[in-house]
Amino acid sequence: MQAPTPFTRPRRPRRQRTLTAQLVLTIVIIVGIAIVFLGFATTTLMRQYMIQSVDADLRNSGYSVADRLLKDIQSGEHINVDNRYSFSNYWIYLSFETANPSAEPVEIRPYTTSRYSVPADPEKIIADSVAGGDQAKINREPFTVAATNARQHWRALVLDVTDPSSNVLGYAIIAQPLAPISFTVGRLALIFGLLSIATVLAGTLAVGATVSRSLRSLRDIERSTQAIAAGDLSKRVPHDDHADEVGSLATSINVMLAQIEHAFAEKERSEGRMRQFASDASHELRTPLATVKGYTELYRMGGVPEEKIPDCMGRIESEASRMSGLVEDLLQLARMDEGRPLQLEEVSLSDVAEDSLYDLSARAPGRSSRLVGLNSEHVPNVVVTADQDKVTQVIANLLGNVLSHTPEGTPVELAVGTDNGYGIIEVRDHGPGITAAESERIFERFYRTDVSRSRASGGSGLGLAIVAAIMAAHRGSARALETPGGGLTVRLSFPGARSDEIARRAAGLED
Description:
The chain is α+β, with helices and mostly antiparallel strands. The protein has helices at 11-74, 81-85, 113-116, 122-131, 179-215, 219-229, 245-300, 309-338, 349-363, 388-405, 436-439, 455-458, 463-473, 500-510, and strands spanning 91-95, 106-108, 143-146, 153-162, 168-177, 345-348, 369-373, 382-386, 412-419, 422-429, 477-482, 488-494, 498-499.
């Protein structure tokens, strides 16, 4: 028997070990990240807690220590001040420049000074706190200051030194070193790190053994899927009808293979739409931002004549309004995507359509508009459960679209009726219309039939996307149709319609 070539013999073990390594590495990385995060959070909280303890000690004891020291100095016992206070943890600095500029400051250094150094430049600490008017640092909250040793820091509290009449004689600094806290937190981090390494190593061995044992059951599926991976999607994974994990996996793979081509195609389309959305959004914001920036820079450099300033400001306001409108549209689409609840109530589509035509006559008095029934001149009273403000917005968006994309004087019709239990509103225009390919995409975000992206005629490309989103939230639909004789018709379908016509039909059936 011919021995296997060096290329085929190690193939399966190497691939199996690689998959095992990937799974183990993924799990270990996740566990490691969790442990690192836990360790970081633990040490951070511990450090904050210890600093808060130091702050509490400074607030609780700082006043009494400073007051006692001041009384000792005023009583003439300042000769023994160092001996009395040097065995405490406090570094104390008293400055009397406010009452007596020639007075020498008093500095009390604790016994730990040789190890932790002392705060650097105390006069600057006092000057910064007083000159800046930072009342949070005077008599109230401790803060961190640097030490003469660049690697050390202290926690300091600045206090007023006053006489019995509350006159400020000077200022005192009471401080404690942060080095013991850093040392304790460092030891905690070291211990936690060693335990974490031991845990990760033990977990790696345990997970590796478990994953390796579990993957042995998948060898048959691996051999079958190699042919599928080569491109033959008609292949299916052989399996027995066993209700175990391997049988379930084989069934799932076979179901997946039946849909994989469609899934890949849909994924590519979705990614393409997302890229286009991001590109168009940035494009829409870039131009008005560039305009505003250009005008402001021109004005700052004195390049705008006095008589042109109103025009310049008008252009800035216009572009800002354009950006504001675009952002509002994007926010509304985001809210619709979040699935926020609608304010549902009984809405008469006939009344909403009639009100919308009144609004249209105010916006475009020269436009011929009328309200008709869906299939006749009679307009039925159609009632649906919907959000009236959203329905009004949908029709307003569509009518605005008609005004933007059809010549002046183009007649507009709103048709109301029912169809198979759905309440219908059709917005019909008799303009140039759109192609069949465009009708399939006009409800996409940022899509414009104007390929030149002219804002004068193409708009932002979000109006019809908002229409589609609102109709989807109502569990209805929006469709683009061709108007008989030429033009565009947008049909809005609302579920659960009730109308006079439906009531008459129901009464006829009962009779």
